[in-house]
């Protein structure tokens, strides 16, 4: 019997240790660490980039800051991990980061097979085409026989092939690896058409010396709903991420901005605004946060519209119109469930 | 009598004539080296043509028309169509230190300076008091580790996600270089050893590592290890990469050194045995000094290759200088600038690789004792 004690004790200790690790929620981990770990893109115009001080900025980045502000009360308590297209899912699955905010398309297999929970759609994108005006083409349906610059190994490649097959047209693919390479090839007339997500096309066009000589064709051939995601299995954490995103959208509907959020909290008569900003009710407490979590998030980065305009909007060089990403009250698709 | 029978006797040397015209001086050099045959003449003219058609354009672009003061690519283009070095001027801190906190820059800088202090006794073997200085060289990796990461003893902790730029390259490169040489020597000795287990372990390790691309090992370091380790155990990513790069380089190093061992005549081994030296004594005093000397070009070649291979870490999302290009381009003020950034990075790498290669040439000359 004596001999059994050590292995059993070790086994029990190991089981207890692994059990305690497994049971600790992401929220507790983040609070204990005092920092949110967030994976962002290694660099994509408007979505994530570094400023002159080496600070991460961008549309995806600001969402992480909003979550950090909501959870920890400090928008700068984020440790950003740049993730490539290849490493992003393992980083999230292995627990190296708490949340992935890296312009990731919401698809069935990512949701189900890879076991991630998507928290909503932060940006509705779609694949588009850019051509030179001199080509005299006004619609993607006139592109029969064109040479197309296309990033290999992406969903864009599959979408392109599907689209041309469906339209009964042929094309000559020119395989490229990176956005930069695609841009150079397109400008050097190695291909007639450059295709990638419409936001990427707009960002590229903005850098051309004669942007007006290039047009983005009206056809959008795929659905690319981009959004943040977390691991399966921690619903509380998923709820937090989802409702921070929703709070940013509701704030836009209600006209709450980073500048007036304190004023709104003090003076607004709207019951939903009062609930959202934690003046009435116990909404924050029920997901394990302070009642003013949304107020903290909005104060840190502003509402959805403000974040959009700051990094992607028509005032920036990326120069994207709100389009599908306008609030539903203005004809777009951004629609948050009610906060009650 | 005899005086008259000889018509003429030279009593002194004739004055030396100058060499035929056109075989000495600048003209001679040019003739001998540039126009010695019709093929050489053609090649020379072609080279001159290439140099003249390329160099003025580059100099004009990089220096004459270059812009150093601007806040965006647009401003640069308005000023001139030369190189827009303003982006380097704004971002060089990031390219050197990554996201290291600005107020703590003195720590990596101190570590960098100490690197040279540690290198001097290792590289200069006539240094006075070398024995004591070498102890510091051995301790250097730990000193540097403490300076860069901190975390105890009064230095604020800096996490690996804040490391980047040339600092990251130096960490991976220097650690890989300094650990791969001793590991490589041990592997090479094991592989040429007579002990079957030691030998087969070395063979398996070397052949496995050499049969796998570095990228694969980096993916293993980044992705697979996370699945093997229990959740919540955070094994530092930079450390994981350093270990993988070191293992990779040591396998190559082992083969380079084994080449040196094989090149030694058998007589050297027998002479060592005849002197009654044990295995370690003969290796340390007779075999390795000669084998390593022969292997110097190969060793430095591996070092330089390793240093440049560190850029592969951008694939797993680490922000080495090349990795920092993408977030810089993501900034809308600089979106579209490409050549300047890559040229700057190439320049940084050139400095280090060139220095290593020059040092190896110096070492070869110094150790050239006339055997070859």
UniProtKB/TrEMBL annotation, chain A:
Signal sequence segment: 1-24
Entry-linked InterPro entries: Bact_solute-bind_prot3, Solute-binding_3/MltF_N
Alphabetical keyword list: Signal, Transport
Keyword match Transmembrane: no
UniProt record, GO biological process: amino acid transport
Domain of life: Bacteria
Gene3D superfamilies listed in its UniProt record: Periplasmic binding protein-like II (3.40.190.10)
CDD domains: PBP2_BztA
Family per similarity comment: Belongs to the bacterial solute-binding protein 3 family.
Designated name of the protein: General L-amino acid-binding periplasmic protein AapJ
Organism: Pseudovibrio axinellae
Upper classification of the organism: Bacteria, Pseudomonadati, Pseudomonadota, Alphaproteobacteria, Hyphomicrobiales
Gene: aapJ
TrEMBL record, chain B:
Pfam families for this protein: BPD_transp_1
Taxonomy, superkingdom: Bacteria
Keyword 4Fe-4S on entry: no
GO (cellular component) term, any one: ATP-binding cassette (ABC) transporter complex
Subcellular localization, as worded in the UniProt entry: Cell inner membrane; Cell membrane
Keyword list, A-Z: Cell membrane, Membrane, Transmembrane, Transmembrane helix, Transport
Protein name: Inner membrane amino-acid ABC transporter permease protein YhdY
Species for this entry: Pseudovibrio axinellae
């Amino acid at each position: 019997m004596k001999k059994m004690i050590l292995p059993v004790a070790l086994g029990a200790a190991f089981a207890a240790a692994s059990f305690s690790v497994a049971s600790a929620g992401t929220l507790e981990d983040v609070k204990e660490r005092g920092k949110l770990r967030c994976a962002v893109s290694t660099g994509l115009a408007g979505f994530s980039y570094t400023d002159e001080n080496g600070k991460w900025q961008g549309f995806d980045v600001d969402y992480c800051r909003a979550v950090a502000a909501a959870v920890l009360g400090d928008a700068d308590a984020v440790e950003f991990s740049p993730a490539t297209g290849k490493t992003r899912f393992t980083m999230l699955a292995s627990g190296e980061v708490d949340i992935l905010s890296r312009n990731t398309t919401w698809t069935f297999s990512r949701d189900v097979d890879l076991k991630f929970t998507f928290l909503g759609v932060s940006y509705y994108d779609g694949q588009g085409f850019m051509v030179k005006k001199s080509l005299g083409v006004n619609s993607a349906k006139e592109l029969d026989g064109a040479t197309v610059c296309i990033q290999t190994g992406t969903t864009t490649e599959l979408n392109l092939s599907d689209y041309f097959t469906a339209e009964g047209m042929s094309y000559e693919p020119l395989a490229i690896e990176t956005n930069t390479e695609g841009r150079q090839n397109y400008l050097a007339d190695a291909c007639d058409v450059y295709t990638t997500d419409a936001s990427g096309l707009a960002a590229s066009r903005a850098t051309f010396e004669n942007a007006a000589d290039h047009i983005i064709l009206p056809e959008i051939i795929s659905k690319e709903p981009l959004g943040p995601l977390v691991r399966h299995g921690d619903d509380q954490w998923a709820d937090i991420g989802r409702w921070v995103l929703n709070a940013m959208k509701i704030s836009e509907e209600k006209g709450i901005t980073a500048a007036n959020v304190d004023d709104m909290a003090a003076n607004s008569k709207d019951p939903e605004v009062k609930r959202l900003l934690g003046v009435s009710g116990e909404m924050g407490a029920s997901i394990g946060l302070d009642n003013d979590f949304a107020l903290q998030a909005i104060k840190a980065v502003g509402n959805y519209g403000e974040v959009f305009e700051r990094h992607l909007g028509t005032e920036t060089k990326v120069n994207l119109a709100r389009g599908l990403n306008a609030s539903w009250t203005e004809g777009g698709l951004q629609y948050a469930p009610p906060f009650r | 009598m005899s005086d008259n029978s000889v018509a003429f006797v030279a009593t002194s040397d004739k004055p030396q004539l100058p060499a035929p015209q056109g075989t000495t001086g600048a003209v001679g050099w040019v003739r001998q080296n540039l126009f010695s045959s019709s093929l050489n003449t053609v090649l020379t003219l072609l080279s001159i043509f290439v140099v003249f058609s390329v160099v003025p354009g580059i100099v004009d672009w990089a220096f004459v028309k270059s812009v150093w003061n601007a806040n965006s690519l647009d401003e640069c283009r308005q000023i001139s169509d030369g190189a827009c070095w303003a982006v380097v001027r704004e971002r060089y801190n990031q390219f050197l230190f990554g996201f290291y906190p600005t107020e703590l820059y003195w720590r990596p800088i101190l570590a960098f300076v100490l690197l040279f202090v540690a290198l001097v006794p290792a590289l200069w073997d006539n240094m006075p008091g070398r024995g004591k200085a070498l102890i510091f060289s051995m301790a250097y990796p730990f000193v540097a580790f403490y300076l860069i990461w901190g975390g105890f003893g009064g230095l604020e902790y800096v996490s690996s996600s804040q490391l980047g730029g040339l600092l990251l390259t130096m960490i991976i490169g220097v650690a890989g270089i300094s650990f791969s040489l001793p590991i490589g020597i041990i592997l090479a000795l094991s592989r040429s050893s007579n002990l079957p287990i030691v030998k087969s372990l070395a063979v398996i390790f070397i052949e496995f590592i050499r049969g796998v691309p570095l990228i694969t090992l980096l993916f293993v370091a980044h992705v697979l290890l996370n699945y093997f380790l229990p959740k919540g155990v955070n094994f530092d990513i930079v450390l994981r990469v350093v270990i993988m790069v070191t293992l990779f380089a040591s396998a190559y190093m082992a083969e380079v050194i084994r080449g040196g061992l094989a090149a030694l005549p058998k007589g050297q081994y027998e002479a060592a045995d005849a002197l009654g030296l044990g295995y370690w004594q003969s290796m340390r005093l007779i075999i390795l000094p000669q084998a390593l000397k022969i292997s110097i070009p190969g060793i430095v070649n591996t070092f330089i290759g390793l240093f440049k291979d560190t850029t592969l870490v951008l694939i797993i999302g680490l922000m080495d200088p090349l990795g920092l290009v993408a977030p810089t381009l993501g900034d809308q003020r600089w979106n579209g600038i490409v050549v300047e950034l890559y040229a700057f990075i190439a320049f940084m790498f050139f400095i280090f690789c060139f220095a290593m290669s020059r040092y190896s040439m110096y070492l070869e000359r110094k150790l050239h004792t006339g055997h070859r």
